[in-house]
């Protein structure tokens, strides 16, 4: 395999793949970061040295050791192509890499990076999927096998008709806090202090990450004509509090202005025996997807969900009266890496 990206997830992939008894199950031809890369040719000791170099905070361009040195990315790619081998490309970056992934000429593509599967146009998405064996489990549920489940249901001709999912651990934590009667501002500040949010909490509260996941899920259900613009999303703050209008400190200072409206929504839901959950919904039968706060029955699977776990509720012909429910960690470098390696094992 060729690994693109040596951030948290990429390093976890290398760490797990080289630490167990089955290290021979995963052979890395090359490892690349934004600075360059190393031709590894399946040398486990070299891969471990590359991992140590990255964990020390260095770029791959500065690597020397085991008779190897860092090379420009183009040189690495050229050497890989010259070998005419069958290989998989693993993308753990955060870049828009559709064209690059296709240009590698790999026999398989494994994604942890959501952008090639979501930000790409419908046309480019279809091009990527048709160019190679394609797996991208970790883009939606990290190690929780939602896409594999959808794939198996469709293979068995029990096509999902509707999927509702809590796909953000951060927003799950926020909704659980709202359940207890805490104001929105207090819950967001608590989440930020605990490191559950991005440095700018609006990156989570905007719903864009869930929007990407919902689109990927929709495309995996056969709605591959949809694009990001076709998936409406409800941010948890108004445009007037967006990044273009105020910085992070001002946003945090003004969070309290959102408390009254949110408390009213929470109270209205409670009177109906419901709670609020931030969900991505894929209505396969209607050919659409949407993202935002929804009210669900308190005793439903989504209503009982607490904390940062992800949950997916799948409806189909077989799972009509009692839907199929998947729950598990939806984030974390190791959890995501396990999903990547499981995908890789399937395609090599």
Task: List the topology elements.
Layout lengths: L1 E3 L3 H10 L12 E3 L4 E3 L4 H12 L8 E2 L2 E2 L3 H10 L5 E4 L6 H6 L4 E4 L3 H4 L3 H10 L1 E3 L2 H4 L4 H10 L6 E5 L2 H11 L4 H10 L8 H4 L2 H13 L27 H7 L4 H13 L2 E10 L4 E10 L3 H4 L5 E6 L8 E5 L4 H15 L1
Parallel strand pairs: 1-2, 1-6, 6-7, 7-8
Antiparallel strand pairs: 2-3, 4-5, 9-10, 9-12, 10-11, 12-13
Helix pairs in contact: 1-16, 9-10
Cofactor: a metal cation
Catalytic activity: L-homoserine + NADP(+) = L-aspartate 4-semialdehyde + NADPH + H(+)
Pathway: Amino-acid biosynthesis; L-methionine biosynthesis via de novo pathway; L-homoserine from L-aspartate: step 3/3; Amino-acid biosynthesis; L-threonine biosynthesis; L-threonine from L-aspartate: step 3/5
The CATH superfamily title of the largest domain:
Dihydrodipicolinate Reductase, domain 2
The dominant shape is globular
Helices and strands: which structural class?
alpha/beta
Number of strand segments: 13
**What CATH architecture of the largest domain do you see?**
2-Layer Sandwich
Q: What pattern of helices and strands is seen along the backbone? A: EHEEHEEHEHEHHEHHEHHHHHHEEHEEH
Number of domains: 2
- Which consecutive residue ranges, at least 5 long each, have pLDDT under 50? none
| Discrete helix count | 16
* Beta-strand proportion: 15-25%
- C-alpha Rg, in Å? 21 Å
Terminal CA distance reads: 8 Å
Instruction: Trace the largest sheet across and list its strands.
Output: 3-2-1-6-7-8
Question: What would the average pLDDT be, to the nearest integer?
Answer: 92
How would you sum up the major sheet? 6 strands, mixed
CATH class of the largest domain: Alpha Beta
Task: Give the CATH topology of the largest domain.
Answer: Dihydrodipicolinate Reductase, domain 2
| Percent in helix | 40-55%
């Amino acid at each position: 395999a060729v690994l693109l990206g040596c951030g948290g997830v990429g390093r976890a992939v290398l760490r797990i793949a080289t630490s167990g008894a089955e290290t021979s199950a995963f052979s890395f031809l090359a490892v690349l970061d934004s600075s360059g890369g190393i031709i590894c040719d399946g040398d486990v000791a070299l891969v471990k040295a590359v991992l140590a170099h990255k964990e020390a905070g260095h770029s791959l361009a500065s690597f020397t050791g085991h008779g190897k040195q860092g090379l420009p990315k183009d040189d690495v790619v050229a050497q890989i192509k010259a070998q005419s081998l069958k290989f998989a490309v693993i993308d753990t970056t955060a870049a828009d890499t559709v064209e690059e992934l296709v240009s590698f000429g790999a026999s398989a593509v494994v994604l942890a990076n959501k952008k090639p599967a979501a930000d790409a146009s419908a046309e480019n998405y279809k091009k990527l999927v048709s160019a190679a064996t394609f797996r991208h489990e970790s883009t939606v549920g990290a190690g929780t096998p939602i896409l594999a489940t959808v794939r198996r249901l469709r293979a068995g001709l029990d096509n999902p008709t509707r999927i509702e999912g809590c796909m953000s651990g951060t927003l799950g934590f926020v909704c659980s806090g709202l359940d207890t009667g805490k104001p929105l501002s207090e819950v967001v500040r608590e989440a930020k202090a605990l490191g559950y949010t991005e440095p700018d909490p609006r990156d989570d509260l905007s719903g864009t990450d869930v929007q990407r996941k919902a689109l990927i899920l929709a495309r995996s259900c056969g709605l591959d004509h949809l694009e990001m613009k076709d998936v409406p999303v409800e941010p948890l703050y108004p445009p007037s509090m967006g990044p273009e209008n105020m910085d992070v400190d001002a946003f945090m200072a003004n969070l309290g202005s959102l408390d009254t409206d949110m408390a009213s929504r929470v109270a209205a839901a409670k009177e109906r025996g419901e709670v609020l959950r931030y969900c991505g919904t894929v209505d396969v039968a209607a050919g659409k997807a949407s993202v935002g706060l929804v009210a669900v029955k308190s005793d439903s699977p989504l209503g009982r969900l607490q904390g940062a776990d992800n949950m997916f509720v799948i409806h189909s012909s077989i799972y009509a009266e009692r839907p199929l429910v998947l729950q598990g960690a939806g984030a974390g470098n190791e959890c995501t890496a396990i999903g990547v390696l499981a995908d890789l094992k399937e395609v090599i």
